[in-house]
Amino acid sequence: MAQDISVDGGRLLSRLDRFAAIGATPRGGVNRQALTSGDREARALLASLGRERGFALRQDAAANLFLRREGANASLPPLLLGSHLDTQPTGGRFDGALGILAGLEVLETLEDAGVSTPRAVELVAWTNEEGSRFAPGAMGSRAFADETLPESWLEARAPDGARLGDELAQTLRALPDVPLAPLGARVASYLELHIEQGPILEREGLPIGVVSGIQGTRWLEVTLEGASAHAGTTPLAFRRDPMMAATAALAALQADVMPRDSDARLTVGRIKAEPGSINAIPERVRFTLDLRHPSQERLDEMDALVRTVCEREAERARCGLHVRLLNDMAPSAFPEAMLALAEAACTKAGLANRRIVSGAFHDALFLARKAPALMLFTPCRDGISHNEAEHVEPRFCVSGATALLETTLAVLCSL
Ligand code: GLV
Ligand code: MN
Ligand code: MN
Ligand code: MN
């Protein structure tokens, strides 16, 4: 295989600009939520770039899109590179797209240099990593790893009312020339480059993080049912107000969970009162909880606390309570051998690095069930992500792609 090949930084940076234009927001971010027209446009652009270079395309029932650069032995399972093209509603230009375009850059660099790899190298754009339009997140990679697309996911509804099954079908139809392959396939190894989405690498002045593992995530949807009544005429003793229960429960949880455990994360990203009238006690209040922790045991404890506190406050306000599990991702660790390979490859390329735990979840979590997997992080400005202001310095985009290329070559040699 090749020595001394290097990525084309200019090409990578101009591609990042091109994809950022799809779903661009006035404040410099991107709104390209999963399975929307913007997502379909980005998939079509990726497919056409792959086709131009002669890579073989395929998609599966979860609308995961694969670009394959063939290797010397076509029967060996491929080395897979991947990330996602969908974004948060007010997302940034790099969360997901950097990993896809750096992966494409690796395939193209191999192609430019005419490198023959012993096995195929593939790039995949996973569907709906973010999970903010349709829960759970990392849907495409999870379906690929489990080789099934659960019926309940197809019935999931977006806040805009769209049904996931319909959006998926439309997305698959939008690329009529890309053949449909079965869900799941053998994979030799999986690599993903992503932005850190936190402040550590920037603070320490390091271009690369070698991700040792991913903390656990659990999403709950809490519904409190009361009775709608007149805001002006209903005395306290007559109220069954789900907003009183919701605010009391959330205040108690926020005062308890994170202040007592610096590793714990608790976020309420969505809350809705129905019918939503200024002068009516709501009939129903629904909110989501995003819980994170590196320890499975602590995540279970946080989940149990949420249920206990919500039950107590629901009872106090004489309201009904329903808690639904939307997403459950156990903490995971990447194999030591993969970490050592990546560290050596990055160090040899002159890229200083450190190990780091991911606070965000990623598709690699599910690929790790199928094959030795690894993630690399780049720094981002002020640790900001899931925000239109998200920014990665151009030199760190290029060093991230370089790290991905060098790790790809090292992993290919090790297989
Ligand atoms: C997904 O991007 C997450 O970690 O929330
Ligand atoms: Mn991401
Ligand atoms: Mn994200
Ligand atoms: Mn993520």
UniProtKB/TrEMBL annotation:
What does the entry's cofactor note say about binding and number?
Binds 2 Zn(2+) ions per subunit.
In this chain, Zn(2+) 2 is annotated as bound at D95, E130, H386
User: Ranges for the Peptidase M20 dimerisation domain?
Assistant: 214-316
Q: Which domain of life is it from?
A: Bacteria
Q: Which InterPro entries did the record assign?
A: Amidase_Cbmase, Bact_exopeptidase_dim_dom, Peptidase_M20, Peptidase_M20_dimer
Q: Has keyword Metal-binding?
A: yes
Residue positions binding Zn(2+) 1:
H84, D95, H194
Family classification: Belongs to the peptidase M20 family.
Give the protein name, as stated in the record: Allantoate amidohydrolase
Q: Which organism is it from?
A: Aureimonas ureilytica
